[in-house]
Structure formats: structure tokens, C-alpha cells
TrEMBL record:
<dbReference type="GO" id="GO:0032300">
    <property type="term" value="C:mismatch repair complex"/>
</dbReference>
<keyword id="KW-0227">DNA damage</keyword>
<dbReference type="GO" id="GO:0030983">
    <property type="term" value="F:mismatched DNA binding"/>
</dbReference>
<keyword id="KW-0234">DNA repair</keyword>
<comment type="function">
    <text>This protein is involved in the repair of mismatches in DNA. It is required for dam-dependent methyl-directed DNA mismatch repair. May act as a 'molecular matchmaker', a protein that promotes the formation of a stable complex between two or more DNA-binding proteins in an ATP-dependent manner without itself being part of a final effector complex.</text>
</comment>
<dbReference type="GO" id="GO:0005524">
    <property type="term" value="F:ATP binding"/>
</dbReference>
<feature type="domain" description="DNA mismatch repair protein S5">
    <location>
        <begin position="209"/>
        <end position="327"/>
    </location>
</feature>
<protein>
    <recommendedName>
        <fullName>DNA mismatch repair protein MutL</fullName>
    </recommendedName>
</protein>
<comment type="similarity">
    <text>Belongs to the DNA mismatch repair MutL/HexB family.</text>
</comment>
<dbReference type="GO" id="GO:0006298">
    <property type="term" value="P:mismatch repair"/>
</dbReference>
<dbReference type="GO" id="GO:0140664">
    <property type="term" value="F:ATP-dependent DNA damage sensor activity"/>
</dbReference>
<dbReference type="GO" id="GO:0016887">
    <property type="term" value="F:ATP hydrolysis activity"/>
</dbReference>
Amino acid sequence: DASANRIAAGEVVERPSSVVKELVENAMDAGATRIDIAIADGGKTLIRVTDDGQGIPAEELPLALSRHATSKTDGADLFNIRYLGFRGEALPSIGSVARLTITSRVQGAEAHSLHVSGGQIGAVKPAALTRGTVVEVRDLFHATPARLKFLRSDRAEVQAINDMVKRLAMAAPEIGMTLRDVSGGGEGRVTFSVERQGGDLISVRDARLAAIIGRDFVQNAVTVEAERDGVRVSGLAGLPTYSRGAAVAQFFFINGRPVRDKLLIGALRGAYADFLSRDRHPAVALFIDCPPERVDVNVHPAKAEVRFREPGVVRGLIISALKHALAEAGH
Ligand code: ADP
Ligand code: MG
């Protein structure tokens, strides 16, 4: 089982930012309203994610570290759309290639913690915590020097973590999030922070996009809103005048998950082809929602690739939705 975990880890845990993604998604699935992330040395020596979610009961802590144990399926349905997780692979994988400590408290019970290192699971012990869950990952890949060697500079890994946290924060505008670099010790330095937002979904989302991409983007964008054959696209598309020299502000989300996908980028290019030369790139944040059986978002667990059942429908929908929105704005 330990070696199976290490093989799975090769898929799930590519670099520190993939650990951050898995831990933040778990916090989101737990209904957190605040998620605080602390990292040191590019996430190589420390990644700590603290949430105020529902917590894990003491007796279920060992289960959280067992392969293929997930609390997120109902048995009949392999994939529950309400949750980001479903494989039950992330924590056991991380625990096989790092030192992992989970401390958690459910309402009305005492806090407990459990440590695993190199796949060796310790005993559940009483701990101190007011609420929610803290997952601490130390010394990623300490037991697999070959993997450690493939990590980039601390600076590059921090950048990748920052990008990941930004995307996750755009996908969940109702959750407050901070990222701190504690490499120097103490409280560290806040490198990213967004407040929890209230209000209706669209205004909350736009406020979050303004906070992350920039107020100028939201002010120079049109609202996109369309649906076809059960696939819905909504969000903001930058006016052709608000374009960039590089594709740095193109964000796509499918069923609440940040994704990067050639088909979506191609559709975007098609929609703006009449307005922009090849060296200018539109800024967009597009949220696609569709029944889970129409898209496979886990082609590769660590990569944000997707596979649509009917790519033509999605491509056509995005191009027409964007063209329509731009035409309404006089383009
Ligand atoms: P998955 O998310 O696919 O279920 P994980 O390995 O990521 O698998 O997590 C295993 C289990 O541990 C989850 O199903 C959940 O029950 C529990 N868990 C993990 N992180 C948290 C958290 N932050 N809050 C509450 N429960 C958690
Ligand atoms: Mg998970």
C-alpha cells in the first residue's frame, strides 16, 4: 500500500502548488469560509493550510489517510458534483512523500491530530485547536531525492503557488483567503489576500475578479451569459481595447474548478479573431457549468486538463456567447 501511495503521489503531487491545490480544495469541500495558507522556501519545507470548515471526527482521521477513502461519494454515484475531491488519493499520496500532520476539530468535540511520514501513520492524539482543520506538510519529497531535484527555484515555486491560489480564489468568491510566506519565520509576509464577500453570486464574483485581476479589467469588460444543451457559460470578457501582449489574464473554470484547456483557448481566439491581431490577447474570466457526465475534469489529477464529451458544442457556445456580448457593447 505504501508503494501504491508513492506511485499515486507521482500523479497527484507534482510540485508544491499541486499540494496547495489539493489542500485548499479539501478546505472548500469542508465548507470553509476562511482559508489561510502559509508556505516556506517555495513550499518545499512547509505548506500549512488552515480552514474553519466542518472538521474531521477523531475516529475518521486514519481513514482520511487511507487510499481511496473519501467521504465525498454516496456509493452509487462515483462523482458528486458538490465536491471538488472524489478520489481519496491526495492525503495518502502527500503522506507518502512528505511529513504530514492533520489537526482537526468538529463542533462539540475535542481536537485531535494525526501524523504520517514516508507513509508511516502514527497514533491519533489529543491536540489544541478552536475549530476546523489544519493540514501541515513539511519537507516535501524528503524521501525521494530524485523528485526533489526536479523542483524549480523557491521563487518559481512561490510564483506557481501564487497563481494557483489566485485561480482557486476566483473560483470561490465567497471564501476569504490569504497566502503568507513564512520563510523568514514569525508571522511572515502576506503575499495574497482577499476578503470574504457577501451579496448575490454575480456581484460577489465580479468583486472578486476586480480584487484579483484588477478593477480596470472589470470596468473594461462585458458580461457573458449564455446556455446551450445544458452547458452554461457566464463571466466577464475584456473589450478588444483591453488586451494584453501575453495571455496572462485568461481564466477558465469548469464546474467550479480552475482549468487550462486548448479547446477553450482556441474558442477564445476564434471569438476575438476579428478584433485582435495574433500578438494581442484578450483578458477573460469564464465560468462554464455543465452536467458532470459531459466533461472529464480529471484526465490527469495534477494537471488542469479537461475532456468534453461534445467539444463542438462547447466551442460553438463560447464563440457565439463572446461575439454576442461584444456586439452588444458595439463591437
Ligand atoms: P478526497 O478529497 O478525494 O475525498 P483526500 O485525500 O483529499 O480525498 O481527503 C480524504 C478525506 O479527508 C476527505 O474525503 C475528507 O473526508 C477528509 N478531509 C481532508 N481534508 C479535510 C478538511 N480540510 N476538512 C475536513 N475534512 C477533510
Ligand atoms: Mg481532496
